[in-house]
Write a structure and sequence with these properties.
about 120 residues, 8-stranded antiparallel barrel, 1 helix
Length: about 120
């Protein structure tokens, strides 16, 4: 289920995203993680949203992944103290617009293979 998108901005390095569900409407900025390492545990990007006073607050991270067919995608994890649960999703390159990624939510199943297969199906 598509719940949002990320617009890539290679000029500024600040990608803009939006997630819209029945309970959440989050606009965010995604920037390169200055502490990124090639380790699978290290997020490639840091996600910030605007707080109530307009300040940027860190709300999550994104990791680079590769599908079973070799296609790149991102896994995102967002959380905030006022949310009842963390939001996990994946972002895949839009087939028509190379500067856009579609954010897709699917219920966790505990199997990494299914996310990689979803990336190949889109």
């Amino acid at each position: 289920m598509n719940i949002g998108n990320i617009i890539l901005d290679h000029d500024t390095g600040i990608d803009k995203g939006e997630i819209l569900t029945l309970e959440k409407h989050v606009r965010f900025e995604m920037t390169s993680n200055p502490n990124y390492s090639a380790s699978e545990d290290s997020p490639a990007f840091v996600i910030h949203a605007k707080g109530v006073h307009g300040e940027l607050v860190e709300v999550g991270a994104a990791w680079k992944k590769v599908s079973l067919k070799g296609l790149p995608y991102l896994t995102l994890s967002l959380d905030a103290p006022e949310w009842s649960t963390r939001l996990n999703a994946s972002a895949f390159q839009d087939k028509k617009d190379h500067l856009k990624m579609n954010i897709v939510f699917s219920r966790p199943t505990g199997r990494k293979v299914e996310t990689a297969q979803t990336a190949d199906a889109l």
